[in-house]
Specification:
Elements lengths: L3 H23 L2 E7 L4 H16 L2 E8 L4 H14 L3 E5 L1 H10 L5 E4 L14 E4 L5 H9 L7 E6 L1 H12 L8 E6 L6 H8 L5 E3 L9 H13 L4 E3 L2 H5 L4 E5 L1 H17 L7 E3 L4 E6 H6 L13 E4 L1
Length: 312
């Protein structure tokens, strides 16, 4: 006769083995977040990522703020190695470059890195979301308020944003826009560049170019374009708040949700690998109504439309 105690313990053992296997299959994946510093845009990304992780069954173990300091980053990397997350989200260039160099064995998704191509963010463990909206979408957005836009001026440093210009040249013609370019190699050349392009353009496109855009030069660019009745178009709403006419920029909260979805896709693969670099799925059009009024523009066509933000 079979011992009842033996049957009982055998049953329990089998149950625990099956339960443990089921738990492994359905166990939540874990993520760690590193942001370069405490900025409003980064916090909106973080908010979206949290919501997306809840929907995608991903647990955020830790959130680290580098406070703009490289030394903090190296210390945090050591902590992350001990935590052993399944994936890392990096927000901003400092967090992303540190993770790229020191966390090569963990899948990562980066976002909020301006002109990411400059930093060679590629690798078998690296997936990213560009900060800039696709060029054709930017131009279509600008044309909703400037339907007669034909000659678009752009001042740039080839070493900083030459890749953006190269990409733009192949796309603007399809939208019926002519790119009027002016190259500079120093911020001291901004005044000269403005003098050369102002009389030839319908609007000026301000790229995320650190040679062109400085605290000093932005004031000059803004005043010169306004005095000459030239709309100033940008890639960030920060400049719209400061007096530029308009910007087409990514929806930061949705970027976080998009990052969570990419994380889910990476973690569901049989072998984790890069999903490449993708554009933001959603974006906003920001307009400064005071500047529009000074330029004699009406905003009837865009007021109240989804993803349109009006600043005064």
């Amino acid at each position: 006769m079979i011992n009842k105690t033996y049957i009982y313990f055998t049953f329990i053992s089998i149950f625990l083995i099956l339960f443990q296997g089921a738990y492994c299959v359905y166990a939540e994946k874990t993520a760690v977040v590193i942001k370069s510093q405490n900025l409003s845009a980064y916090n909106k990304v973080m908010e979206g990522f949290k919501g997306g992780c809840i929907q995608n069954n991903i647990t955020i173990k830790s959130i680290y703020d580098l406070k703009g300091k490289m030394k903090i980053g190296h210390r945090i990397v050591r902590k992350i190695r001990k935590e052993k997350p399944d994936i890392v989200l990096t927000i901003g260039v400092l967090a992303t470059t540190i993770a790229k160099e020191e966390l090569k064995d963990i899948p990562m998704v980066f976002c909020m890195v301006i002109n990411h191509e400059r930093f060679q963010l590629t690798g078998p463990n690296i997936t990213g979301i560009t900060t800039e909206v696709a060029i054709e979408e930017q131009l279509k957005g600008y044309k909703t308020i400037l339907d007669s836009l034909q000659d678009l001026g752009v001042i740039y440093d080839p070493s900083k944003t030459g890749n953006i210009i190269e990409s733009a040249e192949t796309k603007v013609k399809d939208i019926g826009i002519n790119l009027v370019k002016y190259e500079i190699k120093s911020s001291k050349m901004v005044s000269e560049a403005l003098e050369n392009v102002i009389g030839r353009i319908d609007a000026l496109w301000l790229l995320p170019d650190s040679t062109v855009v400085t605290k000093k030069s932005f004031g000059l660019i803004k005043s010169t374009t306004l005095e000459n009745n030239i709309p100033l178009l940008c890639t960030s709403d920060v400049f719209v708040k400061a007096g530029a006419l308009a910007a087409v920029f990514s929806d930061y909260k949705y970027v976080g949700r998009q990052a969570a979805q990419l994380a889910k896709e990476i973690l569901s693969q049989s072998a984790s690998g890069s999903l490449g670099i993708v554009n933001p799925d959603k974006f906003n059009l920001a307009i400064n109504s005071d500047t529009a009024e000074k330029l004699g523009l009406t905003l009837k066509e865009v007021r109240g439309k989804p993803h349109t933000i009006i600043y005064r």
